[in-house]
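Exercise 7b. Backbone tokens:
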């Protein structure tokens, strides 16, 4: 299964791969913001920063999975359309 996933990423179209990497970079930045907010919660004990951090962290994970799945899906459609 892991081999199939990495082979799918290797044969992916260059433009789709660029969108995937840009999306993953965006999600990584969101994850850093969430980590910073959760660190602020540890020092200040403000519940709003905790909820903000948890929501941003879960959103960044959701978006990263969304970018990966959609890029594989669009690449599969593009490959089948050429055939």
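Sequence design result:
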């Amino acid at each position: 299964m892991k081999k199939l996933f990495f082979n799918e990423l290797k044969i992916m179209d260059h433009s789709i791969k660029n969108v995937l990497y840009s999306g993953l970079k965006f999600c990584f930045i969101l994850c850093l913001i969430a980590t910073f907010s959760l660190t602020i919660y540890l020092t200040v004990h403000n519940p709003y920063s905790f909820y903000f951090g948890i929501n941003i962290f879960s959103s960044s994970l959701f978006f990263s999975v969304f970018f990966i799945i959609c890029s594989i899906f669009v690449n599969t459609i593009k490959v089948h359309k050429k055939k």
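Instructor comment: Residues 30 and 80 are 34 Å apart (CA to CA). The radius of gyration is 17 Å.
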